[in-house]
User: Fold Protein kinase domain-containing protein from Opuntia streptacantha.
Amino acid sequence: FNWLQRIKVALGLACILEYMHKKTETIPTVLQNLDAAYIMVDQDCNPVLFDFSCVSGGIFPIRQGWPNACRFEDWDQECDRLCLSDRYDRLSDIFAYGIILLRLISKRAYERDYLKRKESGDPGTYGWAEKEYWPRYTDIVFRNQRKISLVHQSLRAHPTFDFADGLKITSLAMRCVDFSSQRPRMKGIVKSLLKLNVVRQYWDFLDCDKMLSFLDVEFLSQG
Assistant:
């Protein structure tokens, strides 16, 4: 599962979420349980979602609150980010996407059992990333000046890896898990991924035109 394949999964998943989040209905569709446990990858490295039991909005009934079945891996951190509100919206899907993106680039193993993680002292993906990315002495005002890559060393050795891409995608992932007011929207996430050197260079190999065919036409000019 190399760097180029992981980029394809990240972009493909972002396109799926952007399609769902578009305001084609009065209320946009949100997954509520976006999690690595509910995503499969086919032989061409296309992400496939297979659990829509918690989907809300659009043509589906509105589901509010935080049902246990809809908790994702770093659910406890997301509670803090939403200030314990009982509304799950697109921004929470984006937080969950950020967690998946961090896992894709860092190769951190997935652990579904929150209690097991807590007992072992594992801070979870979010806790680990924040500790690695924001040194304790760094004030929030200077966050944008941090230039740190959380890409795993073995992935950096792949011939398609670009150092600048590593910095950009790390920054993107961290913005996805930042306070809700600072998170990008899925449209912005897709655009950011399209600007990566690896995507521009391997546009046809990644089959980007197909991935973008059901989104706004403006995306097509990015290639």
The chain has ten helices and two strands. The mean pLDDT is 78.
